[in-house]
């Protein structure tokens, strides 16, 4: 088969089968880190590296409208979400999310979530076993709802957490996982849509300037308020990814188990080590495999071409494991972030570029703040790790330790560790 005809073979099935390994595997054969392929029936250009990040985030090159497949919108992001907008329309919608970048806002969320953690964890001492991934999801749900002004009865925290996790878990799957995600989204869009209507009608009071209040009042570029469904979609676009930080909590536990020397560093209260550990968790463990957009015009990148309307994919997992950028990328080594500061377009687990003007995740600071606080608490907790399946399959997107990370014999420290937030 010639290189050309091979490049025109649709690769959607190998992608589904190989998950995170698919794109890095193809990139290995390209020293220039660019591969032309075909996905979902369209020509696609896949790119990697800090320069490619700047190319990808330049709206003259890549647009988001019509780029995200329906099954991903129907599960992960929601129809009409900020992720799908371009230009001034995106900028105005993004204003809704920019307060998330504010350090006071980050501190507020971290405080609510750590309060929820500190309230919950003592009860683990009386349990035979705790599945950390599941419990972290409930703690994060409690904390983020309190912080965002979303009323939540105690009994509703677990089912809400389950739905939020299902929406993330099923976005790249076929079959039951996918349909579970769709049903979860349908349920929660309806419930939160009713809440938005109640806030607008004045029968429920949203705390002033809370996320709930801002979403209910937000006006789009056309001067109109968001319709009820889109408002629910955007409310979920704050709550759902916050609960997704539970994936990283399970990964942090996995890292502490396999690299126990990090426990001492986290307990020491040295915030530089804590920050380095958290960056390494976000770099090393797989979450977003790649990001996609549509070519806004005929494009050429490092000699490879894609026509207007074709797909452009940024290889997120591959870039976070690129030997040229990281050296020994498959070693978990937080020290690398003490030796070399984080560069904006090098470490891209939550996208690249500037979150104020582009699509980069506006919740990155919150993710880092939450993980710093929860990793320190995890390191301080005493527990045993019984025999279980801790493998993290790269063929599953999103992946996690198969067992969800089970702990037994939990003992809560008498005193909050130095440096805990
Ligand atoms: C598990 C942690 C998280 C991961 C791995 C993650 C990852 C990402 C990625 C890869 C993007 C897409 C960037 C792009 O399209 O260029 C994104 C966008 C976004 N994230 Fe996050 N995120 C996380 C946490 C959060 C949190 C905590 C929030 C809010 C509190 C949040 C809110 C958003 C929003 C609203 C967008 C859309 C931005 C836009 O299109 O302009 N994320 N995130």
Automatic annotation (TrEMBL):
Tell me which species this is from: Streptomyces echinoruber
Q: Which GO terms describe its molecular function?
A: heme binding; iron ion binding; monooxygenase activity; oxidoreductase activity, acting on paired donors, with incorporation or reduction of molecular oxygen
Source domain of life is Bacteria
Tell me the protein family, please.
Belongs to the cytochrome P450 family.
Q: Output the CDD domains linked to this UniProt entry.
A: CYP152 (cd11067)
Residues annotated as binding heme = 361
What is the protein name for this chain? Answer: Fatty-acid peroxygenase
The cofactors required by this protein are:
heme
One Gene Ontology term from the biological process aspect of the record = sterol metabolic process
Stored PANTHER family:
CYTOCHROME P450 26, LANOSTEROL 14-ALPHA DEMETHYLASE
Q: Which Pfam families match?
A: p450
**Which keywords are on file for this protein?**
Heme, Iron, Metal-binding, Monooxygenase, Oxidoreductase
